[in-house]
Amino acid sequence: MATDEDLERRLRAIDGRGYPAYKSLKGSYDFGPFALSIDHVQGDPFAAPSQVSICVHAETAAFPPELFDALHRRVALEDLLLRRFAAEVARASYVVRGSGKSGLIATSVPGPEVFVRSACEVTADGAVIVRLEAGFPAHGRTIDARALDRMLFDLIPSCAERALVCDRAALASARAAADLADDRARARAELARRGLVAFVADGSILPRASGISCRPLEGAVPFDSPQSLRATLDLPHRGPTTGMGIPCGVTLVVGGGFHGKSTLLKALQEGVYDHVGGDGREFVITDATAVKVRSEDGRPVAGVDISPFITNLPDGSDTGRFSTLDASGSTSQAAATIEAIDAGTRVLLIDEDTSATNFMVRDELMEAVVAADHEPITPFVERVRSLWEHQGVSCIIVVGSSGAFFPMADTVIQMDRYRAHDVTKRVREVCSERGVVPAASSDGGDVLVGGRGHAARIGAGRGGAGKPLKVRTQGLDGFSVGNGSVDLRRVEQLVDPEQVRALAQLMRVIIERRLTDGTRSAQDVAASLLERVARRGWKEIAPRAEVPCGLALPRVQELCACIDRWRRDAGGI
Ligand code: ADP
Ligand code: MG
């Protein structure tokens, strides 16, 4: 490996030359306690910044092995080190000045969730790798090598030294993060063992400061579990932790408007992810396969069997293999339900605020006027019991407006001024007073939905031979790959733009390698590709030989959502 002195020499040699001479710096340099790699060099000062990585050797980083010997603890340590590094980097950026992105130093800045991210990796033996972007400085197009010297020899290494070496403060926060990760892992395991689909710890803060903030709302009413749903989890570090356990089956969340129903559901839908200490939702834990299902009119649907919900469409289209470029509210929600089950979910999360009413319920008066044989939809309320009883898929449904789901429910939670009450008994009484019988398990054990879908074939688009397809992402809204795109604005469980960036690269790989050949399910394609990334690392989906920062590992469910929403542009129009 070249040394830091070689790098210094190369820098001196290109000072004052044209910008492309920076390309000669590409490579890895031994700096003693760490190695610095220039992985990719930008083409000009205004282009996307260069990529640099630092590998702090295990002896220098010196975190005790028990902080990274299990996967969940290693992920927690990576997350913590990245947060520390990002804080240092924010201070160092633009100390150096010049044209375009000169002097920029940037890395991933995590939100409240803990993700596996390409920006930081702790290796099996304890070395710490961080990846960052650096704007190589220039005046006009003339290389300012002295300024880059300052970035590479002073600014970036001191960020790494301050953030990634195990001093007393780093050790204390790393231990706290590892303990939290242990407790979360135990809580998740307990959930499964006790037949719960979710757990909300007492004292949790569910609402966020605003619709666009992920900070906890100040002065919020802390969560308090109703006695009858209370569960106590014995966590290794936190000790006995009480909270509301939501059992498997059909659960309703009812209550007046503005009483906190949607806030609870939102916390549950994000409870599939781990959250950092201080977030308020550290112990809001939802079955990791849970999927928020909603209506999404206008989306494309490709070959989904929505016949359990919808048959006899007026245009005669085959709902056993339903395809459209422009789904309606009800057909989109039917497709999303089937797709979620095909993607391996055990829990559907549904909010009336984001549902198509005609997909959810139909009342007797309407039935009297519009005869069943003129209505293509079997509403969800008629399927929800068999989903649970015959397929083991639980539902948590927010309903404020209709009691139609009452006879189907195993558990009914009322949110009243942000407090949860168990009103299951009361609902049973009301139902029996009015002669409404609880739903019998109908359908004779048929598997109603799912398990039959093959993902539609996704074409290769216009990629040049050997060249990766062009990938563009737009925050949380979606991405394009080659001449196709995915709209993710209604895929609500995506919370971090880095998930979308990773999804875009995953889709690029799926397309380039033609993994959806029309015979495999989306779940099969998504799960095996993600498993490959978990086993072999980010290089599996990196667009170049080097791994960039800025990717966060998504779930199988969201990758399936992308495959299911792929839209090929109507080329030329
Ligand atoms: P619903 O779905 O029942 O109509 P929301 O969940 O949308 O109600 O909540 C309504 C408002 O109450 C939101 O602005 C939310 O931030 C706020 N809110 C929710 N839970 C709490 C709480 N525990 N403490 C304080 N405010 C809350
Ligand atoms: Mg609501």
How would you explain this protein's 3D organization?
This protein is α+β, with helices and mostly antiparallel strands and 573 residues long. The protein has three domains: 2-166, no CATH class; 248-453, 3-Layer(aba) Sandwich (Rossmann fold); 456-568, no CATH class. Strands 1, 2, 3, 4, 5, 7 and 8 form a seven-stranded mixed β-sheet that branches. Helix 13 (522-536) crosses helix 14 (556-565). The two termini are 52 Å apart. The structure holds adenosine-5'-diphosphate and magnesium ion (MG). Adenosine-5'-diphosphate is lined by residues 206-207, 217, 220-221, 255, 257-263, 415, 418.
Structural key phrases:
3 domains, binds adenosine-5'-diphosphate, binds magnesium ion, 573 residues, alpha+beta, MRB1590-like_C, 6-stranded mixed beta sheet, globular
CATH architecture of the largest domain: 3-Layer(aba) Sandwich
Total domain units: 3
% residues in beta strands: 15-25%
Fill in the CATH topology of the largest domain: Rossmann fold
The quaternary organization reads as single chain
Overall mean pLDDT stands at 93
Sheet bearing the most strands, described?
7 strands, mixed
Radius of gyration: 26 Å
| Number of helical stretches of at least 4 residues | 14
Domain ATPase of the ABC class C-terminal: 176-434
Domain MRB1590-like C-terminal: 470-568
Protein name: ABC-ATPase domain-containing protein
Organism: Enorma phocaeensis
